[in-house]
């Protein structure tokens, strides 16, 4: 605590370094498949709706399991639950390469979703517990960088490998969470335990506090799910989709990291609405670019992906910091579950809903315009949440299971 309390580098903390490595490996499995798996489903003959449903099944299983993670940690402990989650996420991944039907892809995804839930809810526990509150945004920024780094490289790489007929390589790369097991002991050793005089947690209050910023996050991840799932399907030939996803991952990683430092210093009053407005512009540019071909159209898609990536990363960090601040010292495990459920629900809705709407005859470009309108409708909520004050609901250290959320992602 004392090391983190000074303005020294948080990278000096062994727990932060272990957490970074653990999440890079854990989220590599998520990001390498998020666009590759729907593309593989279409190669097996699935339509747009069925291809998006594979991602939806994975995320629905994740959301449902997230609600049980705090209970499992209280029963079995933080390290065993996190380790089991890493195994469940990584070990079944090679089975994707053996599947010849989209239904088997969905079954494997459901199992992996259970493991992903544990990583999502518990992955940020150390980031909140080893630094004082005034450095939490920076710590979560480092954590977000660990989650975003795999997105930077593996989303476009997984898509390119799958479109080139090398999906088996993607399936093997997705086993990376198993290697992350070696970092679990050091990453969990420094997590604070609740004191004997800690007040009873206000679970309902934490849910109410986390809902508004999580609603903003849900809309942004809905747009992200629609972009990551269907851009490679809409532009399967050439380098446009992989390059766009590379730019998306780059700006998402950098903005999530730097937004954490900025929110500690200047607050979220202007940052959250500005990030959301940038996302609106980015999605509109992608929609515009998909209506044409050639250099100007490609430039619009790439610029839009870059802008939306910046919004996507920043909103992740800002919304989680605001959710924790609004909950005060309430049960952060509950805040984490609400935040993560919103993230994954939004991504699942985007993966299924964008494809279903586009398949009605509206087409993907106009569907993205509808998505941009949804983002714009969330701007008033972002203004109110960003200007809100912290709610204090108790005192004392947080439980071991009380980590803030993650991603990425």
From TrEMBL:
Domain Major facilitator superfamily (MFS) profile as annotated: residue spans: 15-390
Entries under Pfam families matching the protein: MFS_1
Chain residue ranges for the region called Disordered: 390-409
InterPro entries linked to this entry: MFS (IPR011701), MFS_dom (IPR020846), MFS_Exporter (IPR052714), MFS_trans_sf (IPR036259)
A GO term, aspect molecular function: transmembrane transporter activity
Topology versus the membrane: Multi-pass membrane protein
TM ranges: 20-39, 45-69, 76-98, 104-128, 140-161, 167-184, 214-233, 239-258, 270-291, 297-315, 336-360, 366-388
Domain of life: Bacteria
Keywords associated with the record: Membrane, Transmembrane, Transmembrane helix
Annotated compartments: Cell membrane
GO cellular-component term (any): plasma membrane
PANTHER family: QUINOLENE RESISTANCE PROTEIN NORA
Protein name per the record: MFS transporter
Organism, scientific name: Modestobacter versicolor
